[in-house]
Amino acid sequence: MKNQLLLFAFFTALAFTSCKKDNLDTTINPQAITVVPLSAVPTAIVAGFNNNFPNASEVEWQKNNDHFEVEFNHQGQRHHCDFDNNGQQSGHSISCASAAVPAAVLNAFRARYPNDMVAEWNQKSDGTWKAHFLRGTMKWEALFSATGVFIKEEHE
Asked: Is the pTM higher than 0.85?
């Protein structure tokens, strides 16, 4: 009974976390990200963004090393996009409810990490799922296929 209550508590907590599609790029230095005003974003990038997301709101631009990133609301969802300096979209993520994570992925995570709680799930555009979690004070990420096959883990 105690195990059932713990599982119920875990899945209840998991239901209130979010997920988003994202590209797993371990070469980006988090300290290199700078919030920038729209006036600092090249015209080609702004045009590419406006063409793809004409009704975006709450837009926030960032410069990350040699490319620009933008977070915004569109069609009732929070989005994140990467653009190269020519205005071409190179990455895209969409926030969604954790209920979207397949049971096979959740079960695979729990089998591999029975004592860890996921803070956020991300689904990449290739269909893989990334779990973000803390172990002590260290941030971890684990990547799984859509069918729950473990791919890799990383930590900071």
From this structure: no
